[in-house]
Inverse folding.
């Protein structure tokens, strides 16, 4: 669900979404086998920045030593991946370090109205009690028809990993 929208720069809007609720069972290492669809920015836009988090129902962030996202990959189900065409396009990933994805000025990831986004994730709860959490993600977007959007260059992701194309690329 969209929980917040604000203007942060000329032609740039920051949208905050939450996916959930998710039950992080006590001692759990939940691995989602398949992707789960999530909300994406509406319209024809360029995404210039994404900031992930795991939050409790009240919006507070639990300490990572208690509950955290071990890893998560955001996918565009409407496109083929450049490195592994048999899987959806992998365009962003994060884990407990909560890496902020930001493009250089003038570049952005194109999001079209027909795109469908999904997330594949592993959630950890190192505590002896169940927790209800949400995946929260902020995306900064520029409308493609705006003056800023018309000057943008489309960035295409190329995902690299040891077992390219595997949903859970564990190796030894």
């Amino acid at each position: 669900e969209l929980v917040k929208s604000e203007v942060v720069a000329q032609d740039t809007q920051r949208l905050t979404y939450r996916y959930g609720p998710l039950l992080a069972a006590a001692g759990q290492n939940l691995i989602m086998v398949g992707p789960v669809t999530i909300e994406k920015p509406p319209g024809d836009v360029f995404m210039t920045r994404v900031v992930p988090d795991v939050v409790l129902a009240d919006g507070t962030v639990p300490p990572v030593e208690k509950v955290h996202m071990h890893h998560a990959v955001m996918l565009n189900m409407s496109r083929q991946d450049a490195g592994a065409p048999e899987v959806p396009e992998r365009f962003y990933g994060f884990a407990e370090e909560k890496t902020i994805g930001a493009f250089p000025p003038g570049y952005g990831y194109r999001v079209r109205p027909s795109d469908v986004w999904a997330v594949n994730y592993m959630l950890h709860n190192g505590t002896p009690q169940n927790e209800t959490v949400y995946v929260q993600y902020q995306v900064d977007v520029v409308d493609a028809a705006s003056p800023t959007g018309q000057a943008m260059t489309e960035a295409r992701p190329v995902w690299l990993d040891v077992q390219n194309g595997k949903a859970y690329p564990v190796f030894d």
Q: What stands out?
A: Helices lie at 147-150. The longest strand covers residues 67-80. The two ends are 39 Å apart (CA to CA).
